[in-house]
Design goal:
- The chain is of the alpha+beta class.
- The protein contains 29 helices and 34 strands.
- Strands 11, 12, 13, 14, 15, 17, 19, 20, 22 and 23 form a 10-stranded mixed β-sheet that branches.
Length: about 950
């Protein structure tokens, strides 16, 4: 029996070891999808993606994204040992799942290596230990706790620099001799340590205790340790433990207590050290490498050689002052590894002289370390001199954003500082700045570089130029001059770095004369007054014009080396050459639409880019555009239509529907889709056109193509309505969750298809099941559209106070306007809408209810004397101004788009009051207009139809 128990215990321990050695990491993650399972799956993909990025570089991930998606993301279950869902939320037909996932990192790293992806080599940091031990306030020399802690660390693979090794340490370090953490850290750095463990152990007097009838002595011990980085003197972790240990004599109790405290502390800090060793904070440490005895050409060559060292992740040549070059390096190894690699002769002639305060000093050739140092310079140190990689397209961005900086670290006051930055190939004249006084400490100066337009247009390919900084300052009445040289990379007019995706907005030049000419020619002769809004019609016209113009998709040329920066054409270039890739064509289309006042955005995923444009239609009216909610993208509470710019030879409707499905499939599959709102991006990266070629645009008319596409869209929408209605009607009872919701949905589809009589039937059935005022509001709204205005008003009068959103109150106000006579309509609407002010708190809320953006009517704000509240609150005066605009328009023209009447000539105009499917006519009804106009300067046809102004409740 005892043997069986022992075997069972060993088996359990074996299982525990297997679990522990699996090296899993719990990751907190969030995912989104159209179903709960899809959202959970996407959450696990995000967790796996995070761990992959912890093992390989960001650049390697971007270069192999398709491989990673195919080989790793498509089968997440291989790497997830366990997963728990924390919470689930649903909104806009999407689920959001918050979960935790345990990722099997050993298997993951093995598979990454199998697929040729280099996994970061994680070297454990080298440590100096400074732990003092006291017993009854007297310092002990035995160092029992310190030695035990060392053993724990060495057993776990950490290297400890022994204080007794004179050859390793340049000074005798003791925690009592150094009081400041910064001094301790810098001294540790100078001696090649990555971390310092500073601590103190205190033990108290032994006191007698009685344990199971035996007299023993107990000793209390408290051990405090801190782990300090030597490169920046930051404390990364700390641990405190207090215990008591017993023995038959005081010495044994003391030793037992010290060893136990050290072992417990070691277990705790090893876990923290392991986590730190694998963190990006450790594997991407930044230092300055300062090399004396080289000129500019040698510095450029050394930059290339240093990159070859295995422990170096990145290196950048910062500046050259006389014969001293300053490099910024990012390394993922230890300082010892860096020293060993350089001393091994991998870089001939380079030798490290010393390490101090986050700087590594080296010499090249036979020059000694201080050959270029000046005695006066010891009080003024150039901490940094940086100029970012410049992009011609960001010229206007540089007007308000510094392209570089210069930092002086002074130990004494400095006066009369003058800086002069020269870049003859970019600047018409040097950038100069004067500063009267610098206080001791770090003093940073921003450098603004605004390249001259006439110089930029001639930069077609990438160049590396030299920037010269002349520095003059007064120190103790002595004028000192220093001269620094730095390499600056400038990309040609088409250079674009997608690490800053918003910068693509600089290429979207909606004010370019060629772009304006193309856009305006495209919409000439295009019909207005369609049931679809004019922005959609104009977008169709632009699509047709591009197709007729004959632009072909062509890939960018193959790069000569590793492709980091993309080449994006300006719209005028694409029109001139009539070729372009996905980003070129998307930029062209966005420029043309934004030139017509249509908001646009770029979307990207899987190294591909396309775009979408804002229809101006609020989400509440989505059924008016398509009964398939996946055909549009909801952004800023409005409906946007996605378009694939590279597929310009298919019809607009087919392109739209195909692109929308691809977008939603990508989202549902967990792809990261990035949205670049161009109007927002312009705030930081304004458009700038550097294509100097001038040419005329001549387009063929496209009104026939637009008419065909509009008819196609009407046919597709009608089929969608019928298909969706049939699908809902065919649902079996067991598949219907809430029959009232289903019948209400059918009613909404009938409203949009124009069959008001059937809509009324289904709304009535829905209300009989669910006596909700919102259900009844849909019924009353349909009565209003079908010409039964007074019946509708009676219902609205009864139920509008039962709705806490204010939407029914707005519907009542619209109905009151229709019922009222022409002279009182405006005032009646205004009075009714005021009753909803207490509920509708803001202009944004009213805009969502109406489906009309009153927040953009800034030109009207303040023009009326009737301000009901602050500008940020609901401003009824804006609404009233739009009513007045509609009334003024009706005086000039008999009809307004969306308004229904029968003219004196007998011509029937369809709209609000119309001939319904039951044959009811509106011959004797008074002519009414929509109470809202479009933006200032809009045409009469831009007024919104009543069906879109009414709020329809969809559950």
């Amino acid at each position: 029996m005892l043997m069986s128990f022992s075997k069972l215990l060993l088996f359990k321990l074996f299982l525990i070891c297997i679990v522990l050695t699996s090296f899993s990491t719990e990751v907190h993650t969030v995912g989104v999808g159209f179903t709960r399972d899809a959202a959970h799956r996407n959450a696990l993909k995000h967790a796996l993606e995070r761990n992959i990025k912890a093992f390989i570089s960001e650049r390697a991930y971007m270069q192999n994204e398709q491989l990673i998606n195919r080989e790793f993301m498509d089968d997440v279950s291989r790497y997830v040992q366990n997963s728990n869902i924390i919470s689930t939320n649903e909104s806009f037909n999407c689920f959001q799942v918050e979960a935790t996932a345990d990722i099997d990192n050993l298997t993951l790293k093995e598979h990454l290596t199998t697929h040729g992806l280099t996994v970061k080599s994680i070297s454990k940091p080298v440590i100096i230990m400074l732990v003092d031990e006291y017993h009854d306030n007297n310092k002990m020399s035995e160092q029992t706790a310190c030695l035990t802690l060392k053993q724990v660390l060495v057993k776990n693979g950490y290297t400890i620099l022994d204080l007794k090794q004179e050859t390793v340490l340049s000074a005798d370090i003791s925690s009592s001799g150094i009081t400041k953490i910064t001094d301790m850290a810098y001294l540790g750095f100078e001696n090649g340590a990555d971390l310092i463990i500073k601590g103190m152990v205190n033990t108290g007097k032994a006191t007698p205790v009685d344990i199971y009838g035996k007299k023993q002595l107990t000793v209390p011990v408290q051990m405090n340790v801190e782990i300090i980085r030597t490169d920046n003197a930051r404390i990364i972790a700390s641990n405190t433990i207090s215990i008591r240990k017993n023995a038959t004599n005081e010495f044994s109790a003391l030793q037992f207590a010290l060893k136990s405290a050290a072992e417990a502390t070691g277990t705790k800090i090893v876990a923290k050290l392991d986590a730190f060793s694998e963190s990006e904070d450790y594997t991407e440490r930044h230092f300055e490498l300062i090399i004396d005895g080289i000129d500019y050409s040698q510095a450029e060559r050394l930059e290339f050689d240093i990159k070859k060292l295995s422990c170096i992740k990145e290196v950048a040549f910062r500046y050259l002052e006389r014969k001293r070059a300053v490099f910024g390096i990012c390394m993922n190894g230890t300082l010892t590894e860096l020293r060993n690699e350089i001393s091994s002769g991998k870089i001939h002639g380079l030798a490290i002289e010393s390490l101090t305060r986050g700087k590594i000093f080296a010499v090249y050739g036979n020059d000694s370390l201080h050959t270029v140092s000046l005695s006066a310079d010891s009080d003024v140190e150039i901490s940094s001199f940086n100029i970012e990689t410049l992009y011609s397209s960001k010229r206007r961005h540089y007007v308000t954003h510094p392209a570089g900086n210069f930092t002086l670290n002074c130990s004494v006051p400095v006066s009369d500082v003058r800086l002069s930055l020269s870049l003859p190939e970019l600047l018409g004249q040097p950038f100069e700045i004067s500063i009267n006084h610098f206080d001791p400490g770090e003093n940073k100066v921003d450098l603004f570089i605004v390249p001259a337009y006439e110089k930029l247009v001639n930069i077609v390919q990438t160049r590396i130029i030299q920037a010269q900084l002349e520095l003059q300052y007064s120190l103790a009445q002595t004028v000192l001059n220093r001269s620094l040289t730095i390499p600056v990379t400038i990309y040609g007019i088409n250079g674009m770095n997608w690490e800053h995706p918003d910068a693509v907005s600089s290429f979207i030049t909606n004010d370019d004369p060629v772009v304006r000419s193309f856009a305006r020619q495209a919409i000439q002769g295009v019909p207005s007054g369609s049931k679809y809004n004019q922005d959609l019609v104009n977008a169709i016209a632009v699509h047709a014009a591009i197709c007729k113009y004959g632009i072909q998709y062509v890939k960018d040329p193959l790069p000569n080396s590793e492709k980091v920066v993309d080449m994006v054409q300006y719209p005028a270039q694409t029109l001139f050459h009539r070729t372009g890739d996905c980003d070129d064509l998307s930029v062209l289309y966005c420029s043309l639409l934004s030139s017509l006042g249509i908001p646009v955005a770029l979307l990207s995923y899987d190294d591909h880019i396309f775009f979408m444009f804002n229809t101006g239609i609020y989400e509440k009216n989505r059924l008016g555009l398509s009964s398939d909610t996946t055909m549009t993208i909801i952004h800023d509470k409005k409906l946007w239509i996605p378009i694939e710019a590279t597929d310009m030879h298919t019809s607009f409707v087919k392109n739209w529907y195909t692109t929308a499905r691809k977008f939603h499939d990508a989202v549902n599959a967990g792809r990261k889709v990035q949205i670049i709102d161009i109007q927002e991006a312009w705030k930081c990266y304004p458009p700038v056109s550097l294509f100097a070629e001038k040419f005329d645009i001549s387009l063929k008319p496209v009104e026939k193509e637009v008419e065909i596409q509009l008819q196609n869209l009407r046919d597709v929408t009608t089929k969608q309505y019928k298909k969706e209605i049939a699908s809902l009607k065919s649902l079996k009872k067991k598949d219907i969750g809430d029959p009232a919701v289903v019948k209400n949905k059918v009613g909404l589809l009938y409203v949009r298809s124009g069959d008001y009589q059937k809509a009324l039937q289904f709304f009535k059935q829905a209300y009989n099941i669910n006596k909700s005022p919102k259900m009844l509001s849909n019924y009353a709204g349909t009565l209003l559209l079908s010409g039964k205005e007074k019946e509708a008003l009676k219902i609205f009068d009864k139920i509008y106070k039962e709705d806490d959103s204010g939407a029914i109150a707005v519907n009542r106000a619209l109905c009151k306007y229709i019922v009222s006579g022409d002279t009182s309509a405006s005032q009646n609407f205004y009075d009714c809408l005021l009753e909803a002010v207490s509920v509708i708190q803001t202009n944004e809320n009213l805009s969502e209810i109406l489906g009309f953006d009153i927040t953009s009517q800034d030109s009207l704000r303040g023009s009326s004397r009737e301000q009901t509240c602050e500008a940020s609150k609901l401003d009824i005066s804006i609404v009233r101004q739009n009513i007045k605009a509609a009334i003024d328009a009706i005086k000039q023209q008999h009809t307004i788009s969306g308004v229904t009447t029968e003219s004196s000539s007998g011509t029937r105009i369809t709209g609000t009051t119309t001939e319904t499917s039951t044959g009811t006519t509106a011959d004797n009804m008074k002519q009414k207009v929509s109470p809202f106009g479009g933006l200032r300067g809009a045409t009469i046809e831009d007024f919104i139809r009543l069906i879109d102004l009414l709020y329809w409740f969809d559950f």
